[in-house]
């Protein structure tokens, strides 16, 4: 095996096909899309070179600002929610449920394998205001409270989206973070306990610092997923009411595909890519700093 | 092994690369099938939301157009209306349009397809001669005096009302916008939801129809033409005032507690089960009104009110919002290049009117023969015959982006969450002129 891996030609044969496929189906379309950012027009009428006009349009577009703000707001809140609740689940599995955690882990993980559209329809019905009263409003009515038009108001629609996407993904992050927490050596934990550390002190001073790398990895996963959210919002609110819950991805989709404006749509996609890149770099830098602090 | 046989390595590498390139090229080239290769079938792209056209075409293929169907069998494919424009753009770009298809939601897109030489123009042909003047006028208004579509529907729009609910609340049929508005307040205080309107997602046109109709009554029949040619903007005060009037109806709750949660089917159901007094809709809904399964209030309990005149406005109530609704277009390459497709078009033009009327659908085709129709359908026929000047719907002359912006923001406008000014700003910014 060692001789194979030290042979450049062998590496070429092993990696070449995969790289070629990757280049054809990923890199070329990405470069193609990058090229579109400098053009206006459509597949029917043809394209004209537009220089940086699409970028100027993005800057002045009254719809792009709210879409960027919504994307950031959603990504921050849902990422924090997914990681915090995921970590709490991981702690629950490790320190409280211990070996009995298998059933709970399976149940909490279940929403991850459900189709997004099914979950969205479930939440639509649960939070329905009209024409039927959904489960949540029936519960509120039972407590003597007025029904809330959850999906008809921008603020409450955002809350429902956040609850749904945190609930849907926290089982996955729970399992991911659980692998980091159970990896902490028992003797370290035992030593801390002998030194008199209580549960919360143990978690704060031992468990969190030692599982920090996996928390960061989960954070990168989550933030990149939430910045690129599309299907859950498309199925739950369609970006509405109006355009109040429209993230950049949905705005890009509507611009490029429904509106046929591939040039501007590609510009929006490029902006989203840059956002993902900046956030990932920022997380890596802060990780490096935190690693030094913890070491 | 790799150390010893360098020729083998090269062979494997070359074979792998060739296989990947072949797969890639095959993937890249798979889009063009079926372009004008429809010589074996008369392909028609329908939409899920319209069952009448496939039904009538199938009936024609079995009866009046049996010979055409034998020469070129009809094959119907369906897809969601919401993604129809996207699909047609992609198919058009790949020269893969079906022989005929439901025309795009945005008439602007069909004009773009025409500009790219993708759709058949029936202007001056025998097919065009089968179209009644009012429908032809509607088609020409939309498509710059060209006959790019066959009008498989001919609709008028206006306000349908529940006679019993009005009578119970002591409201007589309104004759002006002011009296209509007063009736909303009366009905509301009597505990009756005044208007049923859809506003969920892209169904927001249930509300924007009110905006368009009010603009025509206040600013005259060319008001929205001025927007499309750039001589006026939706953000001009007289336009935002009109949208604000509709937003005020929303703030007062006249469109119901949450139009943003109501889709097209629910709004129709609300009206047909007596949960709302007024319903602005096109006459395509008459087939549902005539259906006793859906209509629980009785067809004879439904009245029709043309959108009333606004005092001091430049428009009048006899300027009827009319359209050719869901119509069909033909691929230019299929129509020009295949006599069998031309025969199909001629047969549809000659026979579709009567066949559709038997299904309760009024079309823009002359009807060959007598067909007995229900009273509400007769009422629509009379209104069409009596209509003077026709006007279009709010988004008729907008591009796809502005149409989407308008229709997705209709719900918040109807619930009073969005002011008329904000609504018009959003739509204007998507118009790009």
Low-confidence stretches of chain A: none
The most extensive interface between chains reads: A-B, 43 and 55 residues
**Beta-strand residue fraction of chain A:** under 5%
**Which H/E pattern describes the elements of chain B?**
HEHHEHEHHHEHHEHHHHEHEEEHHHEHH
User: For the record, what CATH class of the largest domain in chain B applies?
Assistant: Alpha Beta
What is the β-strand count of chain A? 2
The SS-based structural class of chain B is alpha/beta
* Gyration radius of chain B, in Å: 25 Å
Instruction: Indicate the CATH architecture of the largest domain in chain A.
Output: Orthogonal Bundle
Helix content of chain B: 40-55%
Radius of gyration of chain A: 24 Å
CATH class of the largest domain in chain A: Mainly Alpha
Quick summary of this structure?
The complex is a heterodimer of chains A (295) and B (433). With 295 residues, chain A is an all-alpha fold. Chain A has helices at 2-5, 8-36, 53-60, 64-97, 101-113, 116-126, 135-142, 154-181, 186-194, 199-210, 212-227, 231-236, 248-258, 262-294, and strands at 39-42, 46-49.
What do these coordinates show?
- The complex is a heterodimer of chains A (295) and B (433).
- Chain A is mainly α and 295 residues long.
- Chain A has two domains: 1-28, no CATH class; 52-294, MetI-like fold.
- In chain A, 75% of the residues lie in helices and 3% in strands.
- Chain A contains 14 helices and two strands, in the order H-H-E-E-H-H-H-H-H-H-H-H-H-H-H-H.
- Chain A has helices at 2-5, 8-36, 53-60, 64-97, 101-113, 116-126, 135-142, 154-181, 186-194, 199-210, 212-227, 231-236, 248-258, 262-294, and strands at residues 39-42, 46-49.
- In chain A, strands 1-2 form a two-stranded antiparallel ribbon.
- In chain A, a hairpin with a 3-residue loop joins strand 1 (39-42) and strand 2 (46-49).
- In chain A, helix 2 (8-36) packs across helix 14 (262-294), helix 4 crosses helix 8 and helix 13 packs antiparallel against helix 14.
- Chain A is globular, with a radius of gyration of 24 Å.
- With 433 residues, chain B is α/β, with parallel strands linked by helices.
- Chain B folds into two domains: 38-149 and 325-363, 3-Layer(aba) Sandwich (D-Maltodextrin-Binding Protein, domain 2); 157-321 and 391-431, 3-Layer(aba) Sandwich (D-Maltodextrin-Binding Protein, domain 2).
- Chain B is built from 19 helices and ten strands.
- Chain B has helices at residues 6-28, 52-62, 66-71, 84-93, 107-115, 126-129, 133-142, 163-168, 177-189, 205-219, 223-228, 237-251, 264-272, 286-289, 332-337, 339-357, 375-386, 400-414, 420-431; strands at 42-47, 74-79, 100-102, 155-162, 193-195, 276-282, 302-305, 320-323, 328-330, 390-391.
- In chain B, strands 4, 5, 6, 7, 8 and 10 form a six-stranded mixed β-sheet that branches. In chain B, strands 2-1-3-9 form a four-stranded mixed β-sheet.
- At the A-B interface, helix 2 and helix 13 of A face helix 1, helix 4, helix 5, helix 13 and helix 18 of B.
- Chain B: InterPro entries: Bact_solute-bd_prot1, SBP, TAT_signal.
- Chain B: It comes from Agreia pratensis.
- Chain B: Residues 1-35 form the signal peptide.
């Amino acid at each position: 095996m060692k001789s194979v891996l030290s042979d450049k030609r062998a590496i070429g044969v092993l990696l070449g096909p995969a790289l070629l496929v990757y280049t054809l189906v990923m890199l070329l379309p990405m470069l193609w899309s990058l090229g579109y950012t400098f053009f206006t027009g459509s597949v029917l009428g043809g394209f004209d070179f537009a220089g940086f006009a699409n970028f100027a349009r993005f800057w002045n577009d009254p719809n792009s600002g709210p879409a960027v703000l919504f994307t950031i707001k959603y990504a921050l809140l849902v990422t924090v929610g997914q990681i915090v609740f995921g970590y709490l689940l991981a702690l629950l599995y490790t320190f409280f449920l211990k070996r009995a955690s298998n059933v709970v882990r399976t149940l909490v993980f279940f929403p991850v394998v459900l189709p997004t559209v099914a979950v969205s329809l479930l939440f639509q019905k649960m939070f329905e205001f009209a024409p039927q009263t959904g489960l949540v409003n029936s519960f509120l009515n039972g407590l003597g409270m007025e029904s809330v038009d959850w999906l008809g108001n921008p603020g409450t629609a955002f809350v429902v989206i956040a609850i749904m996407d945190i609930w849907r993904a926290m089982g996955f992050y729970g399992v991911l973070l659980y692998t980091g927490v159970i990896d902490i050596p028992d003797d370290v934990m035992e030593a801390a306990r002998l030194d008199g550390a209580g549960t919360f002190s143990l978690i704060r001073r031992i468990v969190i610092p030692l599982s920090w790398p996996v928390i960061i990895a989960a954070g990168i996963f989550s933030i990149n997923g939430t910045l690129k959210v599309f299907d859950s919002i498309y199925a739950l609110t369609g970006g509405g009411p109006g355009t109040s819950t429209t993230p950049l991805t949905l705005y890009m989709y509507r611009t490029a595909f429904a509106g046929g404006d591939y040039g501007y749509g590609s510009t929006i996609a490029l902006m989203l890519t840059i956002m993902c890149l900046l956030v990932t770099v920022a997380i890596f830098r802060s990780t490096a700093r935190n690693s030094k602090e913890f070491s | 092994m790799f150390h010893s046989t360098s020729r083998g390595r090269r062979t494997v590498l070359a074979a792998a690369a060739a296989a990947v390139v072949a797969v890639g090229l095959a993937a890249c080239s798979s889009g063009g099938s079926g372009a004008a290769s429809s010589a074996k079938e008369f392909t028609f792209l329908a939409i899920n939301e319209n069952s009448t056209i496939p039904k009538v075409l199938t009936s024609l293929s079995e009866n009046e157009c049996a010979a055409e169907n034998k020469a070129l069998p009809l094959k119907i494919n369906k897809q969601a209306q919401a993604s129809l424009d996207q699909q047609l753009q992609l198919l058009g770009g790949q020269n893969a349009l079906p022989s005929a298809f439901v025309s795009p939601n945005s008439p602007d897109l069909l004009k773009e397809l025409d500009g790219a030489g993708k759709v058949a123009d029936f202007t001056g042909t025998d097919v065009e001669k089968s179209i009644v003047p009012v429908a032809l006028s509607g088609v020409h208004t939309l498509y710059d005096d060209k006959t790019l579509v066959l009008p498989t529907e001919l609709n008028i729009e206006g306000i349908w009302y529940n006679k019993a609910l009005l009578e119970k609340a002591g409201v007589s049929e309104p004759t002006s916008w002011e009296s209509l508005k007063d009736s909303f307040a009366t009905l509301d205080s009597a505990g009756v939801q005044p208007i049923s309107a859809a506003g969920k997602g892209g169904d927001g046109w249930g509300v924007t129809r009110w905006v368009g109709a009010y603009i025509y009554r206040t600013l005259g029949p060319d008001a929205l033409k001025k927007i499309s040619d750039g001589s006026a903007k939706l953000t001009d005060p007289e336009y935002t005032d009109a949208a604000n009037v509709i937003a005020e109806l929303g703030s007062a709750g006249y469109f119901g507690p949450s139009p943003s949660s109501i889709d097209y089917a629910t709004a129709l159901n609300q009206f047909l089960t007596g949960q709302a007094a007024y319903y602005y809709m096109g006459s395509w809904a008459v087939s549902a009104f005539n259906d006793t399964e859906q209509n629980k209030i009785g067809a004879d309990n439904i009245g029709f009110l043309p959108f009333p005149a606004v005092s001091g406005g430049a428009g009048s109530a006899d300027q009827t919002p009319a359209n050719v609704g869901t119509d069909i277009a033909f691929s230019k390459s299929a129509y020009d290049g295949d006599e069998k497709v031309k025969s199909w078009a001629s047969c549809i033009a000659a026979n579709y009117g009567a066949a559709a009327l038997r299904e309760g659908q009024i079309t823009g085709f002359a009807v060959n023969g007598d067909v007995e129709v229900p009273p509400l359908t007769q009422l629509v026929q009379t209104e069409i015959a009596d209509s003077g000047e026709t006007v279009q719907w709010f988004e008729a002359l907008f591009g796809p982006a502005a149409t989407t912006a308008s229709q997705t923001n209709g719900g918040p406008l109807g619930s009073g969450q969005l002011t008329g000014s904000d609504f018009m700003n959003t739509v204007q910014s998507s118009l790009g002129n």
